[in-house]
Amino acid sequence: MRSSVELYSVETGETRVVWQTDRLVEAPNFTPAGDGLILNGDGRLLRIGLADPVPEAIDTGFADRLNNDHGLSPDGRRLAISDKTEFGKSAIYTLPIGGGVPTLVTRNLPSYWHGWSPDGTRLAYCGIRDQVFDIYTIAVEGGEETRLTHGEGRNDGPDYSADGRWIYFNSSRSGRMQIWRVPSEGGVAERITDSPYGDWFPHPSPDGRHLLVLSYDGDVFDHPRDLTVRLRLMDPDGGQARTLFALFGGQGTINVPNWSPDGKTFAFVRYAPE
Fold first, then answer.
1. What is the mean pLDDT of the segment spanning 210-214?
2. Per-residue pLDDT reduced to its tens digit, 80-93
């Protein structure tokens, strides 16, 4: 499997290759300064610089079975990870940006991190409880989780809007996976996309102008890797949706928040067919 880590400029429409490797790497986040990316590979996290993309391992302590649900706090001081080493099911932890011993956040399992509130106080995630996939939030310090959806189809991939007002997510409640949003404090969800595709992993831009979505063919179930998919850009309310480009990817391409701090660029991973 060859992975190509790339950047796309919304202003120019140009794509830049940052790093290519024969390893499977997934789910790039920008560092807070915008000069590097954090990805996962082989159950670990790694950091690469944009100017000098030499991979550097991030110490995650005992957690060495990470999936690709990870991201940085708004102040850039901590990382959230999802790892199943300790319990055999995915749990959410935080740790210092430079690496260290993970601190457990979620006691209800499995839980898969996807978003950090703009004020840094809460995490949004997909929790599976009795085989039901729903959207939850929890204080960064842990405690009781708040449930925002209630089994209306499969609900997954939550990410906060730049103002913290909304949590965007993908849901199969309409029969095909589409993008929805729900008030971050709880309330009635509203539908954002009405497309012929299977829409996943909505990521609002930090400047509040755009929503990025990964779209599968409409008959694809779940979010597998190694398929031709599309990256689509739209207004936060779903208007003016357009396909930026198609690529070979899927799982691992944009699972986590992937915008640059200024909202002008996003990172993604393209894969080469074996």
1. 99
2. 999 999 999 999 99
